[in-house]
Fold this protein.
Amino acid sequence: MAQGDFPREGVGVTAFFLGSSVTFGSASGGVSFVEMLGERLGWTAVKEAVSGTTLANLDENSYPARLRRRLPDVRPDLFVCQLSTNDAARGVPLGEPGAQEATVAGAIESVVRLARGAWGCPVWFYTSPRFDSVAYGEMVARLNEMAPALGVRVLDLWNDAAFNALDPAQRARYMADPVHPTLEGYREWWTPRFAEALASSDGRVR
């Protein structure tokens, strides 16, 4: 599949998901929207997710380090990267475009460059929904600022008012804590939104 093309539903599409605990499904027995999307859309869904890790390259389990190790293993049609909440929790510097990988902005650029250089496929980032974190909100804003120049699409759940409009009973069912969804949350709340965005006819977030 050429760069710029967008995968549709069906057998033969491979999607690679890079992330931390939300991508992994740490509050749902290791099952997340990734497996559910694969089943729903008929994709081969490859998950590279380690709980507690950062987007910024701080150690051997951070996103760029793990992505480099996986580059030869797969040839995906689509790459989806989580904007990790751990960077905000650990006070990782936001940085500016062109900064080092140890900053959020530098790591975003590095991940995009690595994936595009190796695979030439569409690149998406996704954010967490709203929770109480000024730092994460700043990360989301920086990602959205950088996305047009990088040519990446963003599934921005942080700023999606409809997605965040849960009543207390729904939130209790769908979230194990302010950050991590339950199995029911992935199945009923997250996966339909991801499927809508990723399988849309032109690849745009709606």
